[in-house]
């Protein structure tokens, strides 16, 4: 009986690892199936095919065959020019790939995440890659979009207690199950890591809508995404971060 086969669809390779003597297991990101695994049979034997097609950051059109969770990779076509990331931008791309592998469920459509990933690659592709600070804006924007699309980022302009808009002059604490709630501090008291000024949160909300992060908001964005990502990622360190530190030191 012939295996069911999907039509050609857009995809990016998030991760690959050897499988048996000559094949690869690939983790793909597609809009229709989200993260999905497949076997590229004979890919390690066909060096030219792998070098030209089965590379990260390259837009592909793929066909997937089979009924189980682990599909078989069918015909592959290029869907455009590969993003040749340079210097530190390579590690930004690897970090995004690792986030997607760790956080995305298997087999669920991810149209918005796919679009956000495409935007990130375009942004990283435009960087020289010589300064780590270049990566901060594109990566924070991608993290927030990813968390928002997965339902793990509360509304950045909404107070969960009053069920209304945030007060720009107010102080708010992040509660993961409910969102941002008002907190009253005595004058001069040191704020906690999970507390934010309403104006900063509204600024992040505006940045998400405009797809651009002003430099002044990057520190707040990093603190917020760190709080939201930490419980999702658990204790296992991100390999892309460790690799970056090995190459460039702690930055």
UniProtKB/TrEMBL annotation:
Pfam families: RecO_C (PF02565), RecO_N (PF11967). SUPFAM superfamilies: ArfGap/RecO-like zinc finger, Nucleic acid-binding proteins. GO terms for biological process: DNA recombination; double-strand break repair. The keyword DNA damage applies. Residues 9-78 form the DNA replication/recombination mediator RecO N-terminal domain. The keyword Acyltransferase does not apply. Keywords: DNA damage, DNA recombination, DNA repair. One of its GO terms (cellular component) is bacterial nucleoid. It comes from the Bacteria. InterPro entries: ARFGAP/RecO, DNA_rep/recomb_RecO_N, NA-bd_OB-fold, RecO, RecO_C. Involved in DNA repair and RecF pathway recombination. PANTHER family: DNA REPAIR PROTEIN RECO. Belongs to the RecO family. This is DNA repair protein RecO.
